[in-house]
Amino acid sequence: MVLLCITTIQRKKQAVAKIISTQQKSIDAGLLTERLAFFLTCIIFLFAPLIRGGNRQISLVVLLGLGLLLLAVLVTERTYQTLSVPSTKRLWLFGSTWQSIAYALLILSPIWLGIFYLFPLPIDTWSSLAGRGFYTMAMQDLNIASPSKLPISLTPAATWASLLAGIPVVAIFCAALLISTETIKKLLVVLLVVTVIQVLIAILQFAFGIDSVFYFDAKVGGSVIGSFANRNHLASLLAMSLPICIYIFYDQSLKKQLNTSAPENRQKKRIILAFVMFLGFAILSMLLATLSRGGLMSGFISLGISLFIYILALGSKASRKQRIAYSTFAIVFITAAMLSSGFEKIQPRLGERLLSDAEVRNTISSATLVAAAQFWPWGTGLGSFEAVFPRFQPALNLGDRGYIEYAHNDYAQILMELGLFGALLMLVFAVLLIVQLFQIITIIRFKRRIPKNLAMQCFCGVGLLAFLMHCWVEFNMHIPALAITAGFLAGVFLRRPGTDFLYPNKVASTKHHI
After folding, report:
1. Residue 119: phi, psi to the nearest 5?
2. Sign of CA dihedral 394, 397, 402, 404
3. Mean pLDDT of the chain
4. Which 3-state string (H, E, C) describes 212-274?
5. Does pLDDT of 418 surpass 70?
6. Helix residue ranges, H only, 255-391
7. pTM, full prediction
8. What tens digit of pLDDT does each residue of 379-401 get?
9. What is residue 149's three-state secondary structure?
10. What is the distance between the alpha carbons of residues 226 and 283, in angstroms, rounded to a whole number?
11. Residues near 270 by beta carbon (within 8 Å), at least 6 away in sequence
């Protein structure tokens, strides 16, 4: 009887040891995947700003390869972790069923949009679609033989390129949803480093003038642009980075040192905070130096919301006097940045020039919506705006350029190119954002404070808001670096609080408190 008990105990110990060993291997594999995902994401962040309009074909191939590698890593690890965890302990990635469907529509959009818009249709069916009879009649008038089949997209090559360019954005979005909170914090620092590099390039452009090599042969009329094609794109990156900078300042201010009473630790913390504050001042000053109206408006709105969240997140850690002091300091901070950039240069851009340019862009957007109605509900195909819009282009003074490449309103252009599907994708994304916002507000009201990880999501959401606002008057969704940064911020904002999906075994055995 004693021998039987000893044998049973030994078998149970061996079984427990085997389970622990399996879980440890799974966690080790998750750590390796996490590091690989971090490395690939860093490379994408650093490489994307180098892509301009004139050299994007080869560069986008590199981004596509990196995006596919990142997706392969995430899918492989997620599949392995899902199969290795008992079904009773598995964590749902997207929450409810409707949310899973919504995320699937967004993440798989390059696939199903490609199938729909690039699948050949008989010419009779194609001609019967909205807006396409015009082209059939034109071919007949010119005695051009009609092909037997045509895809729905009016420019299939441009649609192919646009869909492939969206894969890195999807990969970054998925990475932000899946990787751990600590890795997200490191990637936010990397994003800030990327922004600082752009600020340094812009400073060199300002210091050496329009003929300097730091403009990389771009003709922009003397404004600072960083490595982008124009100042509006640099301004959009800077506007998105301001909330990130404030979050890093907030995170560092709450970080506990191993020995907080040691003078060297307190001094180190003060140096870090002062350095982050200096970076924020440099980013804000350079945002003002771009003289981008849309960038300035979206940047200052995001800055104001970020400062409000910062004061709210401090909660009981800051007294009423400290909050007043922080608010006063923020006003002085912004005023100093405006004075250092030259307010006399900003004022004309926000006066009559703003109204005249707004009228031109509204005219283009209105014409784009007319084209969208003409091709409703299927649209013209992703990436087809430049080829199709001349048919609807109003009479405008465009200088040396006789055509318009983008609608300067990404939402109108999406409706023209994707029709009903574009409206569906925008609606789904908006619903996900609104639902997440209400969930965050509910958690804050229940906890009566903003938890640290939830603060990170709030600041990233504000950065995303700056991007979405600027897209109303620009074509930032078509700039790889901006689209990738916005995709990452969107993924962070939409994360399920308190859950890191690349560590399911670790998460399943731990109670997470938001």
Report:
1. -80, 125
2. negative
3. 80
4. CHHHCCCCCCCCCCCCCCCHHHHHHHHHHHHHHHHHHHHHHHHCCCCCCCCHHHHHHHHHHHH
5. yes
6. 263-290, 293-314, 320-341, 343-349, 352-374, 385-388
7. 0.86
8. 999 999 988 998 888 876 555 55
9. strand
10. 12
11. none
